[in-house]
Amino acid sequence: MARQLAKILGYVFIDSGAMYRAIALYFLRHAIDYSDVEGVNNALGKIQLAFAHNTETGKSDMYLNGENVESEIRDRQVSENVSNVAAIKEVREFAVAQQQQMGEKKGLVMDGRDIGTTVFPQAELKIFMTADNAVRAARRLKELAEKDPTVTLEEVKQNLEMRDHIDTTRDISPLRKAEDAVVLDNTNLTPDEQLDIALRWAKAKM
Fold first, then answer.
1. What share of the chain is helix, strand, coil (3-state, %, to 5)?
2. How many domains does the chain have?
3. What mean pLDDT, rounded, does the chain reach?
4. Could you tell me which of 33, 17, 27 has the C-alpha nearest to residue 77?
5. Is position 206 within any domain?
6. pTM reported for the whole predicted model
7. Cβ-contact 51, 60 below 8 angstroms
8. Is residue 86 part of a domain?
9. Which residues of 15-28 are buried (b: 16+ CB within 10 A; e: fewer)?
10. Is residue 114 included in any domain, yes or no?
């Protein structure tokens, strides 16, 4: 929805979750010990993140040190590790600094779990999206099944619950609703219906 909203408004779309996934992928590839602060900082110093437009899909792909990793960062192993990586203080500081720099010129739609509370607390519109967990799991299974047909609904449900727990209880930038955010519960909405609501809210702020 964030990507569609940005396209309609003529804004830049940034998937902050893709940035954390790319960092998690680098950590997995290089067997970085999450508890080793020096090792984490050394690894972050070797990471360059960038988004580039994909002419075939019309979307922005995530690049890690010049390599297109858009497909690989959506794998199950990355999904199982991304919340733990994103909970690391140094990782969050690294990513948030880059995200804030991207937003200096405004005209931006950013998707992520701490955007309205930490990255852009003064954002003109903050949408807190939510849905019933069973519906979230079914949607995620459909997405993952295209790459890994062996994944089960129970595995997806457990992964979502684990990520939610880690993200809502971490000390640094926990997942929570900003006081001035509007809630969009899309449990029973179609993609077009939720987009219409968000677009109406955005235009009211313009």
1. 50, 15, 35
2. 1
3. 92
4. 27
5. no
6. 0.76
7. yes
8. yes
9. bbbbbbbbbbbbbb
10. yes
User: Residue 186: which pLDDT band, with cuts at 50, 70 and 90?
Assistant: very high
Q: 60 — phi, psi (to 5°)?
A: -95, 125
Give residue 28's pLDDT: 97
> Residue 154: how many CA atoms within 13 Å on its side-chain side?
0
What is the CATH classification number for the domain harbouring 56? 3.40.50.300
Residue with tokens 């069973």: 134
Smallest CA-to-CA distance from 20 within 143, 100, 113 is with 113
User: Across residues 168-193, what is the average pLDDT?
Assistant: 94
Please check whether residue 79 lies inside any domain of the structure: yes
Q: Which residue has the tokens 């519960």?
A: 185
pLDDT of residue 133: 94
For 107, the domain range is 2-200
Q: Is pLDDT of 38 > 90?
A: yes
Per-residue pLDDT, averaged over 39-50, amounts to 95
